[in-house]
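Exercise 4. Each item below gives a protein and its sequence. For each, produce the structure-token representation.

Item: Assimilatory nitrate reductase large subunit C (Bacillus mojavensis).
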Amino acid sequence: MTERLLRYFREKQQDVQSEKTYDTQCPFCSMQCKMQLVEQTIVTRKRYTAIGIHNPTTLGRLCMKGMNAHQHALHASRITRPLLKKNGEFVPVSWDEALNYIKEQVTLIQAKHGHDAMAVYGSASITNEEAYLLGKFARVGLQTKYIDYNGRLCMSAAATGANQTFGADRGLTNPLSEIPHSRVIILAGTNIAECQPTIMPYFEQAKENGAYLIAIDPRETATTKIADLHLKIKPGTDAALANGLVKIIIDEQLINEDFIRTRTNGFDELKQHIGALNLEDIAEQTNVPLEQMRKAAMKFAMETSGMLFTARGIEQQTDGTAAVRGFLNVVLITGKIGKPYSGYGAITGQGNGQGAREHGQKADQLPGYRSIENEDHRAYIAKVWGVNPDELPRKGVSAYEMMEKINDGDIKGLFLMCSNPAVSSPNANLVKQALSKLTFFVAIDLFISETAKFADVILPASSYLEDEGTMTNVEGRVTLREASRPCPGEAKHDWQIICEIASTLGKGRYFPYTSAEDIFNELREASRGGIADYSGITYDRLRQEGGIHWPCPEPDHPGTGRLFEDSFAHPDHKAALSVIPNEPVVPKEKTTAEYPLFLTTGRVMSHYLTGVQTRKSASLAARDFESFMEIHPKTAAAHNIEDRVLVNIESPRGSITVRSKWSEHIRKDTVFVPIHWADAQNVNDLIGDSLDPACKMPGFKVCAVRVRPI
Ligand SMILES: Nc1nc2c(c(=O)[nH]1)N[C@H]1C(S)=C(S)[C@@H](COP(=O)(O)OP(=O)(O)OC[C@H]3O[C@@H](n4cnc5c(=O)[nH]c(N)nc54)[C@H](O)[C@@H]3O)O[C@H]1N2
Ligand SMILES: Nc1nc2c(c(=O)[nH]1)N[C@H]1C(S)=C(S)[C@@H](COP(=O)(O)OP(=O)(O)OC[C@H]3O[C@@H](n4cnc5c(=O)[nH]c(N)nc54)[C@H](O)[C@@H]3O)O[C@H]1N2
Ligand code: SF4
Ligand SMILES: [Mo]
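Answer:
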């Protein structure tokens, strides 16, 4: 053996001096893949590897984001001390100084302008315990009616659609394990291959078992590639398409009469409405050929089992609720729900996109999916919280409407936890203007995000590697994410930060918790008897069973994998069919000579949301380091746009600069830009401020733009 080789082996042996492992869950999407981070120390260097851990939802799988998530959590730019803005610069201060300043400012604002002058903006990337506590902090700590969260921009149309139709909202009505056995699957406006990659094997198995897959998307994506039929719809016309499917199923007498009679209301009205619609009109409006529409409808109706999934493509529209309900009409009239291998799923977005929409962060909601306007619900929660029901505020307004109220000067102070609305809100220029008008602004984050830059105080939070708590995943399965590493520097857990602020404000007696589990035990009580009932779930059970589907009302209840087997959640136990107009009530922007193209927005595999986290990961940033505009080569030619050049995209609200990317996979009338970049590449500078009247979801998925080379 040569000297060199010997030296190599000697070094290799000494290489790993110690090894530590941390059990955790990926901080990103709703799959909540369980994983272990292995930390090896090599001389003075640390090497990290993430390994998937077996669990009932993801079976040990991980995607590239999970494998590299530690790169942002361990990044040198994590904030590790409270920061106070002094003369325009952030300077590190002690927790005492930051908290005293918060007390002084909040007291001043509320004394002068009333309780509702303070607002809270939360997140679906925090734990159930933290989401629950943030709702309690707003109502009891600040006594303000103004609280909402980033999930408004995400799951609100699906939630409202399901609540109106079924009387309850849990993303998936069936466990994922049923997908491989379903005979026909519709994927409407969902790009699971890039957005929930570890879900894909369920659908691939279904295909192997002979299922017929139908995708509805204006673009060909990694998801539409596995479909047998792709309806390349004109953006924003899904509600009309759903009506078309319903019409074909009724006309062809493929409805499930027994199911409609015994399990639903409203069929006569639906039939009458649909009878007046014309399929040729719908084909023209949606630009989906009638033959393809017919194929999709007949396949779905005729197979013995079927599942239908929606995501933000159809939901992030000013008629998102209507589109969801339109597709639920398809599910209901064919009786494809409440039985094995048949059901509906709104594919949840953020890590805790499910749980964080159940426990009181929404403007009109109390824990357990209770209503803040219902007297019984108010009385129940007031008792759990030890306050007088009359002291509980009434409902507030949605996320974007809070920004408008800040801009109008009605709201003066803001606590923001785990969100980046300067990038993620529609009409982002107005949002930035509003944030700059705040008298007092506290941001709680891991980093100095684009939004945190506007803050007066930034408080350092703990990341997924450090913070223990429960997350409810895409299946409605509650999971326990263990804390593994200590917080860096003086960072604290989000729940600790809420408790300390409450205590500073003299409300400490309502926030006496010493662990996340303490908070969970109160959440269990608060959710007892509600729709999202967690009262039978304990940390011990979660450790032993690896995850439990809600509702779980008793300690010996196994959890509920499949919903609606015998009844829906409305008082009469029936589902509500609904009459959906082809045209949205709030008009969508139409293309004009001035703005001749549709813009639609979405995601790529390597980045997450506004990119604050994933752009810090060298491995992920290397895959996509800048934003782009997907454009059809023919359209590009018509606008003198070469491939891979910088282009300007303009809407009536603003303009951005991104790189062109020719693609035969997109419609000729549409361009696509991802959402993961900020500043001059923030696509939300272009998006308008119209909201779905039913759920206040912004119309993120369509606006009219013009493009030109630079
Ligand atoms: N890699 C990655 N994964 C993520 C995220 C991420 O940022 N990056 N975010 C997570 C979150 S919070 C969410 S909410 C989910 C989102 O998950 P998805 O909703 O699946 O993702 P999007 O890319 O926003 O949109 C899905 C598809 O809708 C299509 N679409 C656009 N307009 C229309 C339309 O008018 N009609 C129809 N039928 N389709 C349309 C787009 O072309 C796109 O392929 O992903 C989660 N997972
Ligand atoms: N045009 C367009 N706009 C969109 C969408 C779209 O499809 N098109 N999608 C919308 C959707 S679905 C969503 S979900 C929103 C999301 O929008 P945002 O919530 O604004 O996006 P994130 O990038 O997740 O911001 C999270 C912030 O919290 C910080 N953070 C991460 N973990 C923690 C933690 O544990 N504690 C604390 N305190 N902070 C933490 C991160 O550093 C980051 O700054 O964007 C919406 N905006
Ligand atoms: S991003 Fe989603 S699919 Fe990928 S590892 Fe994380 S939780 Fe799993
Ligand atoms: Mo989302």
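Check: DSSP finds 24 helices and 28 strands in the chain.
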